[in-house]
Backbone:
């Protein structure tokens, strides 16, 4: 008895080991014409195995490409499509550098810093005052998501001034929203339950019985 641990690894697992054995056999066929016929038969079987992808435009090309790949590029046939290059497939993709953005206060996030930069470019007036007010409340809400305990408004306003280079300050008379409004607990479903017709009829019947007695 052969165990999977003693067998060679399956190159493309979704086709299974039987398909791989068929392709290994195709590689041993000496006559090219006969080898092409065997390859075409194998591709038909592969299409039945992965029939869920048959509506894709490049379905047949993928089957022929997988045929070559499963053979470990040993199968010399007349493919109706360009044969995939082994070097390109085995080439490791270039490393993508992780975007490194230096954020002074990570709990506020990058978007808050963008809003602050935008606010510093605004002209003085009611629009900038309103923008600063909503921005400060956003900072407070983000801070509370980072730290659930209450936070003083002085801290938020001080860090807003620090991040904006002193250009954004809350206008006198404006107060930040309380913690209870920024972080609200999920409310239970308060929709009253509909009384069933069965219970309603019982109560109505009981009422008539009492009146009768």
Residues:
């Amino acid at each position: 008895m052969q165990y999977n641990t003693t067998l060679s690894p399956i190159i493309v697992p979704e086709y299974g080991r039987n398909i791989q054995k068929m392709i290994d056999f195709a590689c041993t066929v000496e006559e090219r014409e006969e080898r092409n016929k065997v390859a075409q038969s194998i591709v038909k079987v592969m299409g039945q195995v992965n029939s869920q992808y048959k509506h894709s435009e490049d379905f047949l090309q993928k089957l022929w490409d997988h045929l070559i790949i499963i053979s470990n590029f040993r199968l010399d046939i007349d493919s109706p499509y360009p044969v995939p290059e082994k070097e390109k497939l085995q080439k490791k993709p270039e490393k993508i550098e992780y975007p490194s953005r230096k954020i002074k206060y990570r709990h506020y996030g990058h978007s808050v810093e963008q809003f602050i930069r935008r606010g510093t470019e605004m002209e003085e007036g009611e629009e900038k005052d309103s923008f600063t007010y909503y921005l400060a409340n956003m900072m407070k809400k983000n801070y509370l998501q980072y730290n659930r305990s209450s936070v003083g408004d002085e801290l938020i306003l001080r860090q807003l001034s620090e991040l904006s280079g002193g250009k954004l300050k809350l206008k006198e008379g404006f107060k930040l929203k309380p913690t209870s409004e920024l972080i609200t607990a999920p409310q239970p479903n308060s929709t009253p339950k509909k009384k069933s017709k069965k219970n309603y009829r019982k109560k109505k019947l009981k009422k008539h019985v009492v009146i009768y007695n």
